[in-house]
Design goal:
about 130 residues, globular, 4 helices, about 35% strand
């Protein structure tokens, strides 16, 4: 399983004083079943900004090809926007279709070009 973020998502992380540590918590929540499917393999999930909890946190939208790939593609502060516009959702559907077709070789090239960046994550097993 690969965990990736696109360039614009990385920029949004930095602009919101967030990092991969915050994404690892989001990934834990994803695997705990807290993500909401939006269709076309796109999901959304709320994340907590340290010290503010989920109410003062952010929303992440990501592409999820089960057992293969998660790509974080959109992040916004919860107080900036409630829901996606139909135009944003259409753009995410197009992006999802592109991500769904990626080969391992294409992913490696995108990582080398820094179009996509890897997120180091090891899923904890529940006892």
């Amino acid at each position: 399983m690969r965990y990736l973020k696109d360039r614009s998502f990385q920029r949004d992380l930095k602009n919101n004083d967030l990092g991969d540590k915050d994404l690892k918590k989001v990934l834990d929540d994803i695997f705990d079943g807290r993500a909401t499917p939006l269709g076309c393999k796109i999901y959304k999930i709320r994340g907590a900004k340290e010290g503010k909890g989920k109410r003062g946190g952010f929303r992440s939208l990501f592409f999820w090809k089960k057992d293969e790939l998660i790509v974080f593609c959109l992040l916004f502060a919860k107080n900036e926007q409630d829901n996606l516009t139909s135009k944003e959702m259409k753009a995410l559907e197009i992006l999802s279709n592109d991500y769904d077709k990626l080969t391992e070789n294409e992913i490696k090239k995108m990582i080398n070009k820094k179009t996509l960046m890897e997120v180091e994550y090891v899923q904890e097993t529940k006892q």
